[in-house]
Amino acid sequence: MSRFRFGLTFLLGLAALLSTDLALPYSYTMMRDADLRAQAPVVYTARVEAVLGGFATPGGIETRYRLSLGNVLQGRLRDRPIVLALPGGELPNGAGQMAYGVPTLKAGERVLLFAAVRRDGIHQAMQLSLGVFFEQTVGGQRVYMRYLDADSATPKSRNSSYQRVRDAAGFEMWLRDADAAPDDAPYFLDGPAFANEQAKFNLLRDTTSTQPIRWFQFDTNTALLWVSTVGSDPTITANRFTMLTNAANALTNDAGSRLTVTHASGTIASPDTHCNDLVSDGHSVLWNDPLNQLAGSYSCAGGGTLAFGGPCYSNALQNSNGQQYHNAFEGRITVQDGVGCEFNGNSGADGAEVMLHEMGHVVGLAHSCGDSATGSCSGGSAADNAIMRAFAHLDGRGATLQPDDLAALTFVYPVPAVPPNLTISDVSVTEGNAGTTTATFTVSLSAATNQAVTFNFATADGTATTANSDYVSSSGSRNIAAGQTSTTINVTVNGDTAIEANETFVVNLTNVVNAVAVDAQGTGTITNDDVPPTLSINDASVTEGNAGTKLMTFTVSLSAASSQLVTATFNSANGTATTANADYLVASGLVSLPAGQLSASVNVTINGDTAQEADETLFVNLSSPSNATLADGQGLGTILDDDNRIFAHSFE
């Protein structure tokens, strides 16, 4: 069985770290021009007038282009603007789908297309990149070339020669001649100039995304669960579910990384609308091209596209191990119809190897060697022995990761040896009389880690409350980037002139990822800076009366209203009036002034009598004030005598 090329290439290199040069995204074997022409309903030249952007379809996100028709070389087309769709692209909401290796066209470029027309009137390139030729001028000569890599394409014997640069005029003439023999192709060009020009087209032409893609869900032990569509390919006689399960198990069983990849034995009736809403609807393998995304069919004799696919991602960036990544949230692999001659080899082991290679791309691995980005494979090297080399071994090894593959996975998804401890500080701020003050809490790690640490936070009331406008509630999420050890959370505190005690609120941390929360609550203390009021008691007097009792009322007053309860202990004390003589009754207790109240009364009971005596005095003393200070803590009480006085005279 001939060797073949894989796809779904993401931006990550293997143990040699990262590269933004991408190899091919999809599995194919080289086709002869005659076989490609035989499958294409129309062949024509065109100029790219505009990039129309990304569109969501049942088959996924596609990028559409408006073309102006040039020359029709095969079939019939009306002379009007053409809309061409190629897989991959981004939507206005930031959702994207990567289909690496599928060309990205630019306004002003001239192309030659082998195409089919969908029911909606939109054109598709036959066999994806195999059907798209770019017009260039090299050394004054007009030529056509494809965005492919001849060195690592599966040749299908003589078909490998069909990757070479073509003379534009000769190629067009051959296409117009319906009677031209399949092997009568005098338009191929060779030479250093053409080789250098073609090498330029081996690099990624998609400029919409320059960052690699990673599945951050693995950091929270969330599995990547694959399902299959109901439809199958009758040419695949080996168990296709076993192929997928073996591939998933190989990734999950890598002890050096944190992957969990599974394959359900069941199937789904139809795939979801792919990538459009930034929410995963499941990860699916679509057998037999049920959405007709691949124009044409695979030919065991002539070759063509085997499979293609890519991840759905968010264009927002996240950090892991010092590298910025787009976050993948959904994946899909589409398998062309008629590929059983490649998948059945070695009782299905070759198909399992293919699926492991494809899933390796899905989780973020590029080729180890054998493409324009990595260079040729040298026999016996670790890169050459890897599952992720650019062409299959097809030797019955099946879904078995090799040392180079394992090193790559460990680099992309390392398991922290010991998660660091996470703590949050306590904070004290002075509130001020007006405006706002910021309470800054510091969240710290006990040590730097090679993964981003994430968590959620939210404030909660203590004695300080949002209802009283003491502070402004706050919640959200924070990220401590790989290699960093701290971040901050700011809470706004409102100033006021209320006389009150120090107040507190808290900041709680939850959903901590990649660290151990040993102190997940920070206390914020709002220190009152307003001067407490002073407390005074007045003097009082009362006429005693001849019998019964009267109340002598003292007034306890504040110099200013307080927003707190003010209290003080009061006790009566003898002066010239004494309790022993029953002049008054002992008085003691707690005087309270609720928030906002300026005064309160303290009463002393005075006993009446008919004794003729001088005015008498007693005292009421204040002590142990709370939320106030004493300005005058002693009140003088005077008992006014009201009995007639009889004076005795002596005569000599």
Biggest β-sheet description: 9 strands, mixed
Proportion of residues in helical segments: 10-25%
Report the strand count.
35
Strand fraction: 35-45%
N- to C-terminal separation?
159 Å
Note poorly predicted spans: 1-25, 149-158, 197-209, 646-652
Question: Can you describe this structure?
Answer:
The chain has 652 residues and is mostly beta strands. Helix 4 (240-252) links the parallel strand 13 (224-229) and strand 14. It contains eight helices and 35 strands. The N and C termini lie far apart (159 Å).
Helix and strand layout, with pairings?
Elements: E1 27-29, H1 33-39, E2 42-57, E3 60-74, E4 82-87, E5 89-90, E6 95-97, E7 110-117, E8 123-125, E9 132-138, E10 141-146, E11 166-167, H2 168-176, H3 192-200, E12 213-214, E13 224-229, H4 240-252, E14 261-268, E15 283-286, E16 304-320, E17 323-335, H5 340-343, H6 349-362, H7 382-385, H8 403-412, E18 421-424, E19 427-430, E20 436-445, E21 453-461, E22 475-480, E23 486-494, E24 503-513, E25 516-519, E26 521-527, E27 534-537, E28 540-543, E29 549-558, E30 566-574, E31 588-593, E32 599-607, E33 616-626, E34 629-632, E35 634-640
Parallel strand pairs: 4-8, 12-17, 13-14, 13-15, 15-17, 18-25, 19-26, 27-34, 28-35
Antiparallel strand pairs: 1-16, 2-3, 2-7, 3-4, 5-6, 6-16, 7-8, 7-9, 9-10, 10-11, 16-17, 18-20, 20-23, 21-22, 21-24, 24-26, 27-29, 29-32, 30-31, 30-33, 33-35
